[in-house]
Amino acid sequence: MRPHFVTASIIWVLLTAVGEALVFTDLLPVAGSAEAKDFDWIFRFLLILGIPVFTFVIATVGYAMYNFGNSTKPTEDGPAMHGTGMFPKAWLAVTGGLTLLVMVFPGLTGLAQLQRDARGYGWGGETPEMIVRVVGQQWYWQVEYPDANVTIVGQDKEMVLPVDTAIRFEATAKDTIHSLWIPAFRMRIDALPGRTTYMVVKPTQTGEYATDEAYRFQCSQLCGLDHAKMRMTVKVVSKAAFSEWLASQQKTGQ
Amino acid sequence: MYALKSVVSALAAGLIAFYIGLGFAVVMRYSFGYTAWNTEMCISIAWVFGVLGWLLGIGMWGNWVREWIGLDTYGRKAPGWQRYFTFNHDHKVIGIQYLVTFAVVFLLAGLLAMLIRVQLTQPTGGIFSNSQYNAVMTMHGIMMISVAVAAVIGGFGNYAVPLLIGADDMAFPRLNALSYWLIPPVALTLLATPLLGGLDHGWTAYPPLSSAYTSSAQVLFDLAIITFGLTSIVSALNFLVTIIYMRAPGMTWGRLPIFVWSMFVTAWLALLYTQGFAVALLMVLLDRVAGMSFFEAKTGGDPLLYQHIFWFYSHPAVYIMVVPGLGLTLEVIAHFSRKPLFAYRYAVGGLLGILGLSGVVWAHHMFTSGMPNYLHAPILVTTELISIPTGLIFLSALGTIWMGKLWLRTPMLFALAVIFNFACGGVTGIFLADVPTDIHLHDTYFVVAHFHYTIVGGEIFALFAGIYYWFPKMTGRMYNERLARIHFWWMFIGFNLTFFTMHWPGIQGMNRRIAEYPDVLQPVNIAVSVAAFAMGASFLVFVYNMLNSWIRGPVAEANPWDARTLEWQVTSPPPIENFPTPPVIKGHPYDYGVPGSVHATFPSLGGSPAGGGGGGGGGGQ
Question: Closest partner residue to B408 among A71, A115, A184, by Cβ?
């Protein structure tokens, strides 16, 4: 039994090494916000933990098929291992321990960072410095900058945001449920009729849809006919450029 | 022809009753002072009449209802294949009815998946308009969900459970027939939805989209799925009573085959939670036809209410799909490893653990739904906990194959594939259970890949394992092993290429249920589509092999796998009463390699032992 166990373990380790290489590949879209950076390392952390679990199964099944497999009917029975000894208990301890780990860290700790208000409806890790109000309706977004009294409405319009500013999106909907999602920020919250949900995002670098399609403000809750078209492009600019843009919008708006 | 007469007369009875119902609805509306015609209300009422008419026509009148008014019942004793088209009470007939029906639904829904993948080879301007795409996507979803809910339970549950526990039939045979014959109207109703404008709300049917902003076809969806839920509840009740009361003498809970345990757990899940889906859809229906306002915020409703009720069923539903698949997998793995099922008690504990936890995890589908923040932490905890009982299933499977004498026939290959696929689906599930990662990944193709890994990889692969495993028992003929292996490797590789690749566009920012997507994601979508076409083509081999083998395959032995469980100790196919003499259970079903162990004897045959003893696998050769 020992040689089988050892060989299979070596295969497991080798497979895991190959699998873990996946962690360092360019899997994720551009990380345009503080929240995206948090997401990215948690994602990679879970990947680092998850890959050995998957490769353990691959190694065991693959090794068993190769070494214990027969294409014709086996002429005798295998050993009568009932699995009533210590092994299942050890298995329970290991799987339970791993579960507790990912539950507490990064699960609950990450959640604690994202939620400040137990009775609220959304994500808010930071104290907001600016508010953007969003209203979803079939099939376009209406984005309002209340401080500047500027509103942008329509499909494929551009939403401009300042860099290094914690922005609180406050969302609601007029008809069906919609969902705010900006892949570059890794943040999402549904917009519901009759309720105001929110998410706080702090963009950390400039970027725009023209060069990176992760900068888009996409409805991600099925809302009917033109759900796929319900999006806006996003452009994150310097604070100065943002003020200029707001001013220009105020002029054209009046 | 008898079969034709049976079905056509039932259809006619259904149609006549439907029109009587329409007339009734119109007259009632008129006499209460409303406009006589209201499409959604009149159709809803007429539909109920129609289904009752269909049921009476297909055999409930003769077999059942006559009894209520003091008349003698009669059953139609159609010969041969024609009995599959009658109100037959035999659990073996009903099992095959379920399997064939849902194989057809599976192939149709798979065809829709192919169309979806054709559309997604182009970022914009594919073969469909947005409304056509939404209809195709919704139909693919709900048809595949129904296959996943009913194929293994209705097919193998009905066929194998009474045989495995040594019973002569289910506890309530007529109820069983009723549960099957409710399905044709459900299928026809779903197929009729394009006539009323098509569905566009996805299989989840979230209001207010479904309750106020979609076509009248939505009421057909509600009626069909509520009825489909009824078949689940009815058959769940039947399974519970059968498993509790109909076990052969000596078939203690500790000797119950693991597939029966999984069906027991599944039946509890279906009985306890299916009402949730039915109630949620009933509320949508009432919003639409009765002017209620459950989900309309403007008039005091709450759109999120639906999601809570809906997922309260629909998360247990994924275990309704996957648990019998896992039970079937362990069943096949034990027989084809020729070893006792490793850690049997832990595996049963795992199944019961899933049963216990599955009712308190529903809101992990709603982490980004705008539900109150205090709900996230407890649901995150319970969701993560479920990986512990699920891990015990892996313990049992991996422990059984380790050091076994594996016979790599097609059922075993599919069962091993389940373990592989479900491990991948389990690992990706962690990303969706942890809120910080779910926020980005929710409603993307990452989720689509994840649930196809768990449901297709975990359950549909098990379904195929079961089809190949019990094919000789069901049909009395052997399938072609070479074609079956070609089907397996083709499907397995195609499946993994399709869905492993599909995680990536999800991470990159492609959301679900969209007919158009950003240009940069076109290459990966083409790759996924090509792999999906390859996977789809593998089913041609399957269909050919099944039809050809069923008609002219070589005659099967009673026990081609040399397995110990009861169904293999009778002829293939089994006699109508299952066991010529009732079995008495003497030992564990999986005690391969245990000297002198016997699973069952048939005492009136002179006590000859059955179920292979210490003689091992060589005895059957």
Answer: A71
